[in-house]
Amino acid sequence: MFPSNEIKLNLPQAEIIYYPSFFNLIEAKYYYNLLLTNTPWKQDNIKIFGKTYKQPRLTALFGDNKKPYSYSNIIMHPHIFTSELCEIKTKIEKTCEIKFTSCLANLYRNGQDSNGWHADNEKELGKNPIIASVTFGEERFFHLKHRTDKSLRQKLLLQNGSLLIMKGETQQHWLHQIAKTKKQKEPRINLTFRIIR
Ligand SMILES: O=C(O)CCC(=O)C(=O)O
Ligand SMILES: [Mn+2]
After folding, report:
1. Which pTM does this prediction carry?
2. How far is the CA of 133 from the centre of ligand 1 (A)?
3. CA of residue 176 to ligand 2 center, whole Å
4. Which CATH number does the domain housing residue 137 bear?
């Protein structure tokens, strides 16, 4: 089952599909409010070149197994899925035709919260992982850049209720980020569904 308004990004060595209105505005507001209050948000410390910083956003991991997930020197342990996350996961699974085990949730409190350049290529995700990423709340730009061909860059405004799917070799060849912005920004919740083995 595919929603009609799917946009395939025309980027080499990437398979990225964007659904701008995967959830309607009423659903998006409903899930935003539930997730904001029901999620055990926390701010981890990250280590960059030996120095410790507070991660510039809040996060929480959910999973249907107990497997931890580690990145940037953080080891995250999963909470069990809430009923609203199960609903969202089921809807996405119908579109992706695949079952996810885990969800990493991000809360960007304002324009100063961010997620630096990275690829979702941790070994727990296996080769060529599929990542399904949902936005509720504020719109933020999702930046993409090719690892070796510096001329290849793309910017996509992720709108409230949208779904972005990255799959195939995307994580091998591309990096992505949510950059800080000086613009006034309201909170944004992002859910990234993953398969953690
Ligand atoms: O907030 C986003 O849209 C991206 C989040 C992300 O890249 C991640 O959690 O790995
Ligand atoms: Mn990512």
Report:
1. 0.95
2. 7
3. 6
4. 2.60.120.590
Report whether residue 185 contacts ligand 1, using a CB cutoff of 6 Å. Answer: no
CA of residue 143 to ligand 2 center, whole Å: 11
> Does ligand 1 come within 6 angstroms of the Cβ of 59?
no
What is the model's pLDDT at position 36? 97
28 domain-assigned: yes
pLDDT of residue 49: 82
Tell me if 1 is assigned to some domain. no
Residue numbers of the domain that contains 18: 7-194
Residue pLDDT, tens place only, 42-93:
999 988 888 899 999 999 999 998 888 888 778 899 999 999 999 999 999 9
Q: Which of 62, 120, 133, 175 to mutate to test the pocket of ligand 1 (most atoms within 8 A of CB)?
A: 133
CA of 107 to the centre of ligand 1 (A): 10
Residue carrying structure tokens 């409190």: 109
The angle, 0 to 180 degrees and rounded to 10, between the axes of the packed helices 25-38 and 83-96 is 130
Round to whole Å and give the CA distance between 102 and 61. 7
- Number of domains into which the chain is organized: 1
Q: Verify whether ligand 1 is closer than 6 Å to residue 55 (CB atom).
A: no
Assess if residue 2 is contained within a domain: no
**175 lies in a domain?**
yes
